[in-house]
Design the sequence.
């Protein structure tokens, strides 16, 4: 156990004033890292086989939740927020007049180990502002991961950010120690990147992404031949897109994600609703982050990854924006009424998954239970299948809960404003808007 | 009508299944000896736990059920909610009587109940793996209190044993008055002579290392600064960490350092 040197000096105090320098650095560098929304710690396969510290196999764990409701799984910090770039959307940009700080390698290692030992975290998410140049920065990040693995025998989760422009060798080395690597694209089109992040370019971002992908494939091949071949970022790679800092519509964003999942085999694309952190005139003027829009994009992302939807089914040229009032699956179902109603006792699992309001768990339960008996609405209720939206799109044992065949607009209103809403839809809609704003 | 009583152990409950089966006397209630009320209009059968009989029932279930389903049945025992004994009995009876596997037959109430109880227990287990907060004591032991809704301590041991292989730790369930202790070699159940009082999440100052305050304080600082105030969402926050867990979470204790 390492004890930071200043502790002893402070022994007399009841509540020791912890090394104020580190507290100050932690404030600044956690603040600067928090707009990176990824905090996942799942998908690792690192077992504790050396009687060391930590174990990152299996499920991720959220050890706490911030007051904005996000998972706190990792110690997410920047190594430093000194940066030579001047990206308009970024709080750390060179021209922003903020306090700057930098951790030493040992400080990051001590924080990680001691937080981990107390079961505060699953591991470390380390990113950095770019100082001197890309390789210099990347080399520091790699050194921390290496030290944790080799000197501290740390088997917890490590997520390293890949610095755009870093050399292939460094990325390769990073993958040996990290469970996940990520390169943030941030802006969903080249045009916006040129406008808002003049020092970055798409090829510099996509190149390391491609490197990582090739490495992942190669490692898999090697591991087929030799079980002992060293693992490379076993939890894969992810990226982040900022929503609402530039003009792209939802279709462009989701099309990009779809391509990334297919062509770069990314594990996750994260979406970060732009939080106004600067008054730069290249940015739109907003007062609140677009939280509802971000949420709808995540729902659409889930439809692509777990529900068998193609991006073209969710949005197209005629419908380039997600409906903010209703979820994208309901939206799709209302545009495609000819697929419904679905008879739950006979329909394919894939089709049941497409019923609004029925998720993966309910769909699986339905398919499992109907082998034993013909399902009734009572069964569905017992199993916890939520009917609010589903009832307009299903029959169960050829019975419908709907006396009439409503048109799509009517269903939408009924779902949004309740079945027998006495208030005029217009009024409720206005109230609803207030609710969403407030 | 038959009222069964048993000693509260899992083996005891399995012995009840055995005895009921042998007598073909299906239980109206199954209750723990200490809390059972004698029935007037029926026979009370006090079952004595028998390892061999319990083993036979468990082995018999093994032939009828997958590993997952057997685990779920055990989880239902740890669930401890009213009526769990009868649910386990009904589930076992159905399993023994059916030619085919009963798993996934959510149209049968006992199968659905076991699935739902197991899910709740699993969620609580996962929460405890997340919400345990160790404090380092002066003798180098990492110590934590828990007070879980269900009896999940037996389920979280292997997680902590694998994870903290190089540090001595103990986790104590205040509500159920027992704990687990890992001594760098094995993990064992323990009881404490002077049981800590309920609802006290933190150890007395004299018992913890100096550095404990520093790291707790750093953790609080981190927790406050990773938050994005513009996105405040108290409803979502509470859904993820309900208030009853707060007293054991160091980030939810009074701030050691003014912001």
Sequence:
């Amino acid at each position: 156990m390492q004890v930071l040197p200043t502790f002893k000096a402070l022994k007399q105090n009841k509540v020791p004033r912890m090394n104020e320098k580190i507290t100050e650095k932690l404030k600044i560098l956690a603040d600067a890292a928090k707009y990176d929304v990824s905090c996942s710690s799942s998908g690792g396969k690192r077992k504790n086989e050396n009687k060391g510290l930590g174990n990152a196999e299996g499920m991720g764990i959220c050890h706490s939740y911030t007051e904005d409701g996000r998972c706190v799984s990792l110690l997410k910090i920047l190594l430093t927020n000194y940066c030579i770039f001047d990206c308009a959307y970024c709080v750390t940009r060179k021209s922003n007049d903020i306090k700057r700080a930098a951790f030493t390698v040992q400080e990051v290692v001590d924080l990680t180990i001691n937080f981990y030992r107390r079961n505060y975290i699953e591991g470390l998410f380390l990113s950095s502002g770019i100082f001197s140049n890309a390789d210099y920065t990347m080399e520091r990040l790699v050194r921390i991961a290496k030290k944790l693995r080799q000197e501290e025998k740390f088997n917890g989760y490590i997520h390293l950010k890949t610095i755009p422009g870093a050399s292939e060798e460094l990325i390769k080395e990073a993958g040996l120690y990290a469970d996940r690597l990520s390169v943030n694209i941030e802006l969903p089109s080249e045009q916006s990147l040129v406008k808002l992040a003049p020092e970055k370019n798409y090829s510099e971002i996509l190149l390391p992404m491609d490197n990582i992908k090739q490495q992942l494939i190669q490692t898999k091949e090697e591991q087929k031949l030799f079980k002992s071949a060293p693992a490379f970022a076993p939890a894969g790679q992810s990226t982040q897109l900022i929503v609402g800092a530039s003009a792209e519509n939802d279709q462009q964003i989701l099309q990009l994600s779809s391509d990334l999942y297919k062509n770069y085999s990314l594990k996750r694309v994260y979406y970060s609703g732009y939080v106004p952190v600067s008054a730069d005139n290249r940015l739109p003027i907003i007062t609140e982050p677009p939280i509802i829009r971000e949420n709808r994009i995540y729902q659409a992302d889930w439809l692509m990854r777990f529900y068998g939807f193609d991006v073209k089914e969710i949005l197209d040229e005629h419908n380039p924006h997600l409906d903010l009032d209703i979820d994208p699956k309901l939206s799709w179902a209302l545009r495609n009424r000819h697929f419904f109603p679905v008879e739950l006792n006979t329909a394919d699992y894939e089709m049941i998954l497409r019923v609004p309001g029925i998720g993966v768990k309910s769909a699986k339960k339905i398919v499992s239970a109907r082998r034993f008996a013909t399902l009734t609405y009572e069964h569905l209720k017992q199993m916890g299948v939520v009917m609010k939206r589903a009832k307009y799109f299903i029959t169960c044992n050829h019975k419908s809960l709907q006396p009439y065949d409503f048109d799509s607009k009517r269903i939408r209103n009924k779902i949004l404003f309740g079945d027998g809403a006495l208030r005029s839809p217009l009024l409720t809609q206005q109230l609803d808007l207030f609710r969403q704003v407030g | 009508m038959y009222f069964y009583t048993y000693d509260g152990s899992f083996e005891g409950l399995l012995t009840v299944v055995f005895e009921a089966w042998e007598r073909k006397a299906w239980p109206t209630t199954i209750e723990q000896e200490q809390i059972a009320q004698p029935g007037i209009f029926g026979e009370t059968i006090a079952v004595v736990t028998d390892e061999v009989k319990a083993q036979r029932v468990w082995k018999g279930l093994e032939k009828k059920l997958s590993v997952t389903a057997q685990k779920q049945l055990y989880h239902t025992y740890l669930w401890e909610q009213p009526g769990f004994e009868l649910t386990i009995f009904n589930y076992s009876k159905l399993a023994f009587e059916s030619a085919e596997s009963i798993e996934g037959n959510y149209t049968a109430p006992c199968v659905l109940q076991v699935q739902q109880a197991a899910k709740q227990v699993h969620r609580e287990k996962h929460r405890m793996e997340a919400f345990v907060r160790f404090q380092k004591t002066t003798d180098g032991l990492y110590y934590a209190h828990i007070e879980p809704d269900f009896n999940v301590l037996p389920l979280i041991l292997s997680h902590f044993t694998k994870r903290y292989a190089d540090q001595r730790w103990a986790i104590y369930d205040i509500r159920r008055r027992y704990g687990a202790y890992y001594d760098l070699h094995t993990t064992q159940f323990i009881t404490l002579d002077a049981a800590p009082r309920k609802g006290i999440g933190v150890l007395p100052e004299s018992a913890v290392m100096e550095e404990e305050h520093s790291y707790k304080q750093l953790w609080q600082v981190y927790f406050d600064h990773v938050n994005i105030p513009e996105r405040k969402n108290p409803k979502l926050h509470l859904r993820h960490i309900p208030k009853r867990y707060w007293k054991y979470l160091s980030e939810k204790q009074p701030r050691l350092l003014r912001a």
User: Anything to note?
Assistant: Residues 2-124 of chain B form one domain.
